[in-house]
Design goal:
This protein is of the alpha/beta class. The protein is 31% helix and 20% strand. It has a single domain, classed as Rossmann fold (3-Layer(aba) Sandwich), CATH 3.40.50.2300.
Length: 213
């Protein structure tokens, strides 16, 4: 039997607080299978899998993040336009994300993954994206990337300590040999994005630290 954390009703700026499970999509309920996939991922252990399986698990999280985010219509372009995911930093995670996301379809759009060796290459070539994943190989460049993205409707994701506290929107981390994730809804809202409640009720809510915009 799967066990999920119970509601705490608290959020903190730098400390994590767990919120319970609720499945809501717009004005109605999501199909149980859709919300259950993300909940099930929280119960899987990367420690029990090999390196490739662990990275595939991370890619599955990112795919579900994209499913439960909403962009303004102007940021998506025409109905036939793909949803572009920029992956900054070439490492094992970049390869797994490209393999796990490329060609998938969400919200009626094909996913296109573009990998950049570093933030400098992305800044020159890859700003036309709807989501950006910062790999461990490039996490130190987050302040510069954040400045480039200020006010733009780009969903930012990483797996780095303090990412959400420093203005990132979604951050993976490990706890009790399980992959968990943090979410910073105000950072998403400031960029014109919305993180659906289905996603947020499975997340640890973190607010941007004081002084960071």
């Amino acid at each position: 039997m799967l066990h999920f954390p119970q509601p705490t009703g608290r959020t903190r700026s730098c400390h994590r607080s767990r919120i319970g499970v609720l499945s809501v999509h717009r004005a109605g309920m999501l199909p149980r299978g859709v919300a259950a996939v993300l909940a099930l991922l929280l119960c899987l252990s990367p420690a029990a899998a090999g390196a490739q399986q662990a990275e595939a698990l991370r890619a599955a999280f990112v795919l579900n993040f994209l499913k439960f985010a909403e962009w303004p219509a102007a940021a998506l372009g025409e109905a036939s336009s793909p949803l572009v995911v920029a992956v900054v930093g070439e490492d094992l995670q970049a390869g797994a994300l490209e393999k796990g996301l490329e060609g998938k379809e969400i919200q009626g759009r094909k996913l296109v993954v573009r990998v950049y060796r570093d933030a400098a290459q992305w800044s020159h070539e890859g700003k036309a994206c709807q989501a950006l994943y910062l790999t461990p190989a490039a996490h130190e460049s987050w302040p510069a990337v954040r400045a480039d993205l200020a006010g733009k409707p780009v969903l930012t994701i990483s797996e780095a300590p303090g990412f959400c506290a420093r203005g990132g929107m979604l951050n993976l981390y490990q706890e009790d040999q399980r992959i968990r994730f943090e979410a910073n809804p105000p950072a998403a809202e400031k960029a014109g994005l919305k993180l659906r409640s289905t996603l947020l009720t499975l997340a640890t809510i973190v607010k941007t630290e004081g002084g960071l915009q």
